[in-house]
Amino acid sequence: MRILLPTDFSKNAWHAIQYALYLFEKIPCQFYVLHAHQVSPSGLVSTINKERETRLFEITLLEAQEKLNKIINHLTSINKVPDHQFEGILEPDTLLNAMGRHIIDEDIDFVFMGTQGATGMKEVFLGSNTVRLIRNIENCPVMVVPEQFEIGPYQEILFATDFKHHYKKVEIQPLLEITKITRACVIVTHIAMEEALDEEQKQLRKLLGRLLEGVTIRYADITYYPDIASRIQQWSREARMGMIAMINSKHGFFSSLLREPVVKRIAFHTEVPFLVLPEIP
Predict the structure, then answer these.
(1) Which of 122, 149, 150, 241 could form a disulfide with 236 if both were Cys (CB 3.0 to 4.6 A apart)?
(2) Residues 229-246 pLDDT 10s
């Protein structure tokens, strides 16, 4: 397993790293801890200002490298799993560009990102980036881990769907990997926008069941209403779910879940890890 762990050196980023280590404790893994370092240019053109910006960039780049080295050294010292390897990556680029490049170059299986909430300055850096990644990373599962989530075993994963997507095995595979590790039951939660399923939805429901063969499944319905993101979160809280999962579908109902401000509410406010599975054309 190859896991990408972006960090801005915050507590919530570290919490996501800890969750990835916990989840894949018994799985051989190569972990890549990525820090995307970028100093915004001032827009001033004088030679003095350019020199100052260059010096500032070099100083902050060295500081970032030191922090990254400390994380790798700490992970190596505290992690006792022989099959876990760690590598630090410092990229002078935007987070989205750096992640997109390394997802391809390193053939990444999962991205684990932290998110804190919609208050405080950290929202500006990590929260907005989390939403941007959900909307733009199309070739790799992204796990959003809220800082307040208590790391430990859980029994149920909520998989939200409207039964209007033609599921593919490769899309469901990351969810199967997680359920294999956690042995959790998948609650296939239908977002009901109609009184009854039509024939195509019934066939897609059967297809999903076949793709989840070998996994304990239970079906449930949530009646649609405009603030469906809050409804999903409320139900997952009441049912004590350990994770929410969905496919990043670009068409149909779930395209609305990936538009602002709904996905912002999920990314910022979810109390359990939020797994976004890429849609495969």
Answers:
(1) 241
(2) 666 777 677 667 899 998
